[in-house]
Design a protein that fits this description.
about 110 residues; mainly alpha; two-stranded antiparallel ribbon; 5 helices; about 45% helix
Amino acid sequence: GCFVTVLIGAAGGLNIAVTAEELAAGKTKGETLCQTGQGMDGKATIALGANWGGQQKGYMKLEVEAYRAGERRHGPMNIISKMLSDDDIDKLAEWYASIKVTFELPK
């Protein structure tokens, strides 16, 4: 299949080959369950929502897993995360981590 390189992690990161199919699966799951709160571009669309676009994959996985386990509390996230398998979480985190984000310091 087709491969894209995604940079994950802090300083230096890890280069991990991800198939286009895996990214597409994450995008599809995001369209189904996440776009209302996190948007397809990863920019939160609700008050107190987290921006997921460009977030580190490992961090996102830990957070969603914590919601699923009830270790973190947020009504919609606790419900939605219970609908996700480990593989779903992995692909969603891959999709949102693959979004390019730029930061601009205030002047």
